[in-house]
Structure prediction request, 141 residues.
Amino acid sequence: MQLSRRGDYGIRAMLDIASMADGKRALTHQVAERQDIPRVFLTKIIAQLTRAGLLRTYRGASGGVTLARSADMITLLDIVEAVEGPLALNRCTMRPSTCNLDDTCSVCGVWKQAQVQLETLLRGVSLSSVALQNHGEAEGQ
Prediction:
């Protein structure tokens, strides 16, 4: 399994937006430039993150994008699932009933356990904790 560019870009955009000073709105084209994300692609990702309730967008001269809730209330799992859809290592972890080997597969239990651990890990990492780590690394440079 590999996170797609969409997922990677979604996380990078959310980190960029989370780094804005309180009350400041990020401009999509500036986020795209800072994060080296194609602007058209980022616009679609921003729309998905907004529909998922992670971002709030504003139109007009004073428009832009802000987090819809506190960065410590947004997890990496929230972001990945908003842009990638439900997280699944394979089809037996997504819909066990679709696998005709579910009852006899000797690896099925391992996949299910790995699925749970991955979801638990991503659910346990907040956007704010990654942003703080990222900020600390940038200061050390």
Helices lie at 5-18, 28-35, 39-51, 76-84, 91-94, 108-123, 127-139. The domain at 5-139 is CATH 1.10.10.10 (Arc Repressor Mutant, subunit A). The chain has one domain: 5-139. The CA atoms of residues 27 and 60 lie 11 Å apart.
